[in-house]
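Before a colleague's protein record goes any further, I have to sign it off. Alongside the sequence sits a line of tokens, each denoting a local backbone shape. I want your independent view on whether this chain really folds as the tokens say. Where you disagree with what is written, explain briefly why. This is what I was given:
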Amino acid sequence: PGSAAAAAPQFAVGAASGTGGTGAPAKLGVLLLSQGAPDSAVDLESYLFNIFQDPEVVTIPKSVLWAKTPLAWAIAKSSAAGLKASTDGLLDAVSISESQQLRTVQQQAAALEAALRERGVSASAFIAMRYWEPYIPQAIQAIKEARVTHLVILPLFPQFSLSTSGSSLRVLEAALDSDADFGKIQNTVIPSWYKQPKYVDALARQVVDACARVRDAGNAAGAASAAGMAGEGVAG
């Protein structure tokens, strides 16, 4: 799946980078990165276009690069139409569930700020979604307005992949090159955390709890999904 250093070499992994600002009192920020989700079924086509337009998701030869945007729209329209036809009303329920992703991340951001305060660390948490609002440029603007001097970048994907965390890091890296004010902020990135013991324990507890609800747990089978699945989609 690649590496964080290869995806965004201007970011420091586990150590601060950047010019450090003007000597003003340090202000810590934490940027939470996620994929984002459409607010409703109406937004699905535009959301899918954003995904298929991403060069980390769909790569085409330079000789036909001119066709990328119309190709992304064509795939998005076809995929959206197929989902709407196959789900027969389920899509609206799924979209409502997916629109809760932002609220969940907002709750995580608030909990993170509180946990850091308990440890004597004052920090402001910011949220950036790759394919839906709030987009990364919106988060960067908020970070600059807050006069953050040190930024910790935390992807909410446990494992690193070029098509998830890597894609967002590339957008941030481009901002370092084009935005002098953003480039002054010291930064460090946490590329992955899938081996964190508490995370592994949380997954294990969920599996144990699920097995406890199955009558014949000895013959139960598990299914791992990278992006989540609607319960109705796997019933039976």
Summary: DSSP finds nine helices and four strands in the chain. The radius of gyration is 20 Å.
